[in-house]
């Protein structure tokens, strides 16, 4: 009989070899599957013993020229369905694939269901029912162009689910992939040697390795779909299970797993206990970035390395891979190393020359398994070098060190806790670096189109590494973001949901900042001196803050003694944040108002009088929450026309924007009876003096 065994991409050859060893005749390898011939007892043996298959399906029939509903129905209608189940049993149809006529998989599945039901109705005058939860039989249809293959699910639930893993970490690896990695690592060639996983997570790799070394049948305690088929012979199957169970061995194994997360280590211990391996594998806390020797004899290091969500961020990953490479060369001479990662650029940070590479899929993620041999040549590679991708990156490291020294006196004098340290000072290293207490935010600007993406990526890696080392900041406190031109509502969209905040002070005011969840942190550092101006000139004033963001200017106005404050922004998130900033500073007054509104529309229809207005609009906006697109160069006079209606006779408008090359229309301003003084230089603090184009500021009053 013909069967097909499914697996993940990259495991097909291993599965094929395994099927041959188990007595099947392999017919064909395709992406993610292997077709084979076998008798039913051999197929059952495969379900019991396969490490690499995820599902086994038995072929019922295959037919070409299936073009439409009618041909599909007729093909299915005349199969001998009574050989697979009876009218009193339940079934479910799983269909995939389309062609010009059969465009909807759900519809095609219904056609198959109707054909099966009609078959039993004609034969027994009784119809089986569909059960979507636990059917007696699962019928599988696969359409490719005009060829349909009909299968019966022979194995049932995924063979990859061994049953021991009820607890897992953030980045779990499927058991069949873990088995493939163990096989490709070469450890099974000599199971007496140590096997060490420095990032073991919930322990899947080591548990799978131990089970393979002990020759255990992963499906020995499972129930399979074939047990419900009329052709199933229980006596022969029980004899097979007995034979398989007796093949298990109990070799002496030396398996060690470390992980930085105490909770995850607890999961690993629980999983190994459920797998019956509690006394076989040693799990302990350990940091892969600070490797130490784990055995006197050389063995194999194997790990599914963190590559994203499992670790906090880019800086932590870069630090981990760099230090892991150094630790391997220092403490694991003569060992073989097999490391899985989704990011080859991170693997390059190990500074190891790979011996072999295998490509896999971990779920939807493309991954590579790199094998290394830590021979004398690898180990003797100089760790005295910087380890940077480009030696020229040292210039960046020297610059941020120099900048920090240059700002030292000013930072101390003004008690500044949040400031800009670097802003594309060296064009090739096109980032901005902001410091918030003991944490750092790196903004990567979009590289020019002529810059190779790989070059830009490697430079960023160097920037991240050097920023942490030069400033003595721990990797988990280096946050990396991409600064791009924001469109529409993008500026209001969160990047993550870590909800981690800290409080920084500025000229006596406290502000909550969030370095992770949004592109901006909640405090525009370049407006620091503008906010101080507001604080120093707010006494007994009626203050209006438009496009208020998180209300920092309003806080300064309140501290400066403003008698009333109106804070306007169209984002509820930011207005709530503004009110948190007020509460943080113990500022409460019935005349402190927060209004959620489109600032342009609000300003156009505003009434009342204000003595001090802060207006810091976006350079451009076509947000869906604004009625019309806004361009600050084109529309600033319109803004001033509306502002004039609410600016008191002795009032002042502090106008600012971030458009490079902005030019105020003085003639139009004069026609309105207003005058403007450019105070940009006075609003640029020492940390922003390197970039004169960061913003421009104007004081506008009646002429």
TrEMBL record:
UniProt key word Transmembrane: no
GO cellular component labels: cytoplasm
Domain named THUMP: residues: 42-154
Keyword list, A-Z: Cytoplasm, Methyltransferase, RNA-binding, rRNA processing, S-adenosyl-L-methionine, Transferase
Enzyme category, top tier: transferase
GO MF annotation terms: 23S rRNA (guanine(2445)-N(2))-methyltransferase activity; RNA binding; rRNA (guanine-N7-)-methyltransferase activity
SMART domains attached to this UniProt entry: THUMP
Transferase keyword on record: yes
Protein name: Ribosomal RNA large subunit methyltransferase K/L
Organism: Pseudoalteromonas ulvae
Source species taxonomy: Bacteria, Pseudomonadati, Pseudomonadota, Gammaproteobacteria, Alteromonadales
